[in-house]
Design brief:
disordered C terminus; Endonuclease III, domain 1; mainly alpha; 12 helices; 2 domains; Endonuclease Iii, domain 2
Length: 260
């Protein structure tokens, strides 16, 4: 995930600049509409414990939830808790998670995270942001995923979909995930944070893709990007005046002269 406001990143393709972002009232109305398009929005990672979700979220970096869900059932059978994962052999773990990509870095992060859980928290996943981000391989986005989905503590994860969609709609104006999280949480009730993130993520995956499907979007009329970019691109251009075509003179018939 990119951080800092450095101009358009790969996730941005957003609206044109405006004077203000949406008000708190407008933002909540937009999320009401998103709830109708993505009812029951939730993480698409499969898990049964906070530890499993923590592992799955670390694996999901630069991968897809569907791919991670193919890997985790066998992984959780072999390493059902932090104690078991802390004892994992690097070569074996790398082989098991290879298909998720960046398997060496992820293997190192997973074993380090598990060892830290055993040493600092008796193998249990802590329920605070500070303690979670202190674990190897755990950033703020991962911590918010675990807090909101597994521990029942309000959290608003910001990934590339949230960055793209929230900027396009006009809910925020920043490429910095922490600033975007702060802007959204300041206008939403805490009990709405996790669901709002899930709705934006699903909207980014299904509707508001890099090339958006605006015709099936329920918030199209509220979206700055649609109003300032998509609509303008669809406006018919004035037909250019036709140039007067010169008619070429008819070729004169050649006259054959008879030979005498």
């Amino acid at each position: 995930m990119s951080a800092g406001t450095r101009g358009p990143g790969p996730f941005i393709n957003r609206r044109l600049p405006s004077d203000t972002v949406k008000t708190a009232h407008e933002t909540n109305e937009i999320f009401d509409k998103l709830d109708t398009q993505h009812p029951g929005a939730d993480t698409e990672l499969h898990f049964s414990t906070a530890f499993e979700l923590l592992v799955a979220t670390i694996l999901s970096a630069q991968s897809t939830d569907a791919l991670v869900n193919q890997v985790t059932p066998a992984l959780f059978r072999r390493y059902p808790d932090a104690t078991a994962l802390a004892r994992a052999r690097t070569a074996s773990l790398e082989k098991q998670i290879h298909s998720t990509g960046f398997f060496r870095a992820k293997s190192k992060a997973l074993i380090g995270m598990a060892k830290a859980l055993v040493a600092r928290h008796d193998g249990e996943v802590p329920a605070t942001m500070d303690a979670l981000v202190d674990l190897p391989g755990v950033g703020r986005k991962t911590a918010n995923v675990v807090l909101g989905h597994a521990l029942g503590i309000p959290g608003l994860p910001v990934d590339r979909h949230v960055l793209r969609v929230a900027n396009r709609i006009g809910l925020v104006e920043s490429d910095d995930p922490i600033q975007v999280e702060q802007q959204l949480t300041s206008v939403l009730a805490p009990e709405r944070w996790t669901r709002a993130s899930d709705a934006l993520i699903l909207h980014g995956r299904r509707i508001c893709r890099p090339k958006p499907l605006c015709d099936v979007c329920v918030i199209r009329d509220d979206c700055d990007y649609f109003a300032t970019v998509v609509s303008r691109a669809r406006e018919p251009r004035a037909a250019a005046p036709k140039r007067a075509q010169r008619k070429a003179p008819r070729a004169s018939r050649s006259v054959r002269t008879s030979r005498r």
